[in-house]
Design a protein that fits this description.
Blueprint lengths: L2 H13 L6 H22 L5 H28 L5 H23 L3 H34 L3 H11 L6 H10 L6
Helix pairs in contact: 1-2, 2-3, 2-5, 2-7, 3-4, 3-5, 4-5
The structure holds fe (ii) ion (FE2) (2 copies).
């Protein structure tokens, strides 16, 4: 296992983030991959600013895709507190844009560090709390989440990269979507 893979495995296990909704789990796991890659770049004193900028770009892209996916699926499920959940996503985006990027745009290393720390905190403050909350709702309603996920993937053309599937198989199990 590479050091990034080990790091991903450790963070995933210690935070107990598995929801059992493959469409969401694969994205949450991918967030940990992105954090680990960012961390790896920060630990290498030779990493260039453009590499950090690229990785910060990957974070921003991830956030956009993941929040859209999650809010769409919650909409399909008629999740009663979707507005509250979505407002937490909005606050997350606001913090990243206004408090981190706008303040530290000229210093990619500091920005990358702040982002890494904030994303790590998000695992326990949001994914492990609010995302688990909607998962209880799904389980309680006995909804066919697999079928609902498939519909959403088709409607919104949600894609998964080879690397995302690789990590899912390695850390979570068979990829059945
Ligand atoms: Fe999430
Ligand atoms: Fe969420």
């Amino acid at each position: 296992m590479s050091s990034i893979e080990e790091n991903v495995q450790n963070i995933w296990n210690s935070n107990q983030l598995l929801l059992g909704v493959p469409l969401i789990d694969i994205q949450h796991l991918w967030l940990i991959v992105i954090i680990s890659q960012l961390n790896h770049l920060l630990e290498e004193s030779v990493s260039e600013n453009f590499e950090l900028d690229n990785q910060i770009g990957a974070v921003l892209n991830y956030i956009d895709v993941h929040f859209k996916t999650e809010e769409e699926i919650l909409k399909k499920l008629n999740y009663p507190v979707l507005a509250v959940h979505a407002s937490q996503h909005q606050e997350f985006v606001r913090h990243i844009n206004q408090d981190l990027i706008a303040e530290h745009i000229l210093d990619p290393r500091s920005l990358a560090k702040l982002m890494r720390d904030f994303l790590l905190k998000w695992l326990s403050s949001h994914i492990n709390v609010e995302d688990k909350e909607y998962n209880y709702f799904i389980k309680g309603k006995n909804l066919d989440i697999h079928q609902i996920s498939l519909e959403l993937i088709k409607e919104k053309s949600i894609e998964f990269s080879e690397d995302q599937i690789y990590f899912y198989k390695k850390i979570i199990g068979d990829w059945i979507i």
